[in-house]
Amino acid sequence: MSESGTGGSGRGKGPQRGGQSGGGRDSSRRNAQGRERNRGPQRDFTENAPSQRTRRADPARLVAFEVLRSVASEDAYANLVLPARIRHHGLDKRDAGFATELSYGALRGQGTYDAILARCVDRPLDQLDPAVLDALRIGVHQLVAMRVPAHAALDQTVGLARAVIGAGPSALINAVLRKVSAHTLEEWLELLVRDETDETRIASIRYAHPEWIVRALRQSLVAHGRPVTEINDLLEADNAAPVVNLVALPGLGSLDEALDGGATPGELVEGSALSSGGDLGRLASVRDGSTRVQDVGSQLVARALAAVDLGNGSNDAGSNDAGNGNQAGERWLDLCAGPGGKAALLGALARQQGATLLANEPAPHRAKLVRQALAAVPHEVWHVRTGDGRDVGTEMAESFDRILVDAPCTGLGALRRRPESRWRRTPKDLADLGPLQRELLKSALAAVKPGGVVAYVTCSPHPAETTAVVSDVLRKREDLELLDAGAVLDRVSLTGHLEAGHELTAQLWPHVHRTDAMFLALIRKKA
């Protein structure tokens, strides 16, 4: 796990307690009744007297606690809960940054932190009250991965527990966190892996990933032509706090306000920027939806679909001019559009190219989000359909020139942005999602016109969700061909050389491209 630079300047330090003398203070050890108190020098309450600790919840730590509780008890997503809690508690920019690092860091490191806590608690962790366990995880992250003084981490975490859980657990939390504070993170890791011999188990502990995900990512590297020795770099990249990626919708949005506010131009794709975060809602272009938060990997795959040449019948990516061979009047389809990020970018690109976009989403509440995402794009360009994407191939056979299938997947390629996912997903999800992924791709291939292209996309690099799905669907079909997806990504990128292609499909990586691990296959139906 990466060490955070978020220190919460001044947070939890307060006035020094204990050990004070002089200044006219009565040094008598007798109490008001004349009895001598059986005490030595005044104790350092920060470390030794839980009853004298802070009794209120620091707002930033309270936000982090509420996020962890929502994730654990309501199956919520941290990236959705966190902004709402920050607004609810009125945190300023500094405190919001502290709460963000504390929330995401505690969630990312949960496996490692639980292994540390198991050495410091006198009972199995599953016997602890879940709220107490979440408070302990917050305390551990402060102690071993943030530049928060140990006394402040202890004092404020116990104060949080007293305020929101009760006085009873505070003594336990104090005692456990004092044991944790006896070692640095690296010392703890050495203790935890000292007797381990299995490389997967060691990586799981060191980099806070479930063992099955470590194995899955090792397999994914090999499947996409990268050396398995990159596994530790990949796991470490998953644990780095991601930079916020912005995109200005082509022809509609502007990055000027973001750049004036400290964002830097993106290095991989046109019209993108990198932001240190903060309250992006203060930007007018973000509020009106013409500038959006979107991972650059998602930007690249959407632009690749819009740029690939249609209908020339050859197994290449077309010329070096993006959009060459595209014609006005094309019909585009986003088959799995919710919550609408890629649909918004595709809608803007469709407008530029004289095309129209149908965005399909089966869930009504997510279809509403798609409409909101597309609101910045002129309404004559797009339409939202609420329905099962598996029916589109039958109901609208050979109707579309370009189709995006951003298939539901395990999200193993977006673990850095969705820290709770690594602990929520199971190997069973791979098996459960496989049939749906294949059915959606088959539906799209039925709905695309001869000469048209389907982009099959997942935010997972696992071969069971990527290359296996594509090969299964294309098997024994003579009317389909794979295009060179890596070449198209190179064409729409600013660098022109991403090194993402492997056997005609393409795979982006957090540790190589600093994007989510997006997979892309471009499939053309022969004219």
Write up what this structure looks like.
- The protein has 527 residues and is α/β, with parallel strands linked by helices.
- The chain folds into two domains: 47-186, N-utilizing Substance Protein B Homolog, Chain A, CATH 1.10.940.10; 295-525, 3-Layer(aba) Sandwich (Rossmann fold), CATH 3.40.50.
- Helix content is 44%, strand content 12%.
- The protein is built from 23 helices and 13 strands.
- The chain has helices spanning 45-48, 59-74, 78-89, 93-108, 110-120, 130-145, 150-164, 170-180, 185-193, 199-207, 211-223, 231-239, 256-260, 284-287, 296-307, 341-352, 364-374, 392-395, 421-424, 427-447, 467-474, 485-492, 510-513, and strands at residues 244-248, 264-265, 272-275, 291-293, 331-334, 356-361, 382-386, 400-406, 448-458, 480-482, 501-502, 505-507, 519-525.
- The strands form two sheets. Strands 5, 6, 7, 8, 9, 10, 11, 12 and 13 form a nine-stranded mixed β-sheet that branches.
- Strand 6, helix 17 (364-374) and strand 7 form a beta-alpha-beta unit.
- It is globular and about 70 Å long.
